[in-house]
What does this fold into?
Amino acid sequence: QVQLVESGGGLVQAGGSLRLSCAASGRAFSRVGWFRQAPGKEREFVAAINWSGESASYADSVRGRFTISADNAKRIVYLQMNILKLEDTAVYSCAGRLITQLSWPYWGQGTQVTVSS
It folds into this structure.
C-alpha cells in the first residue's frame, strides 16, 4: 500500500511563492507527479519527476515558474511555486506510479492553494 500526504498549501498574493511537499510511504514506486484541479475544471497535470531526480517534466502553464524536486532519502517530493498567478488557484494533489504504468494509481488527499489579487 502507498500513502501520499501533501502539505504546504495556503493563501498567497499574486506574484508570491509557496512550496508544496508530498511525503510518500509504503511500497516503492518510481515516479511522482503533481496535479491540480480548480473549481469547475478538470484535473490537470502540473509536473512530474522520478525519485532519482531525473526526467522532470512540466505543463506549459507552469514551466519557468514551478520547480519539482525529489529527496529520495526522505521520500519527499517538493513543488516550488514562484510568481503565482490567480489562475494557479486549485487543489494540488500528488500522485505516484511505476515507470511502466501509464496511469497514476496512487493519490494523496490534496492541499488547497489560493492565490489572491
Q: What stands out?
A: The mean pLDDT is 96. Residues 97 and 105 are 6 Å apart (CA to CA). DSSP finds no helices and eleven strands in the chain.
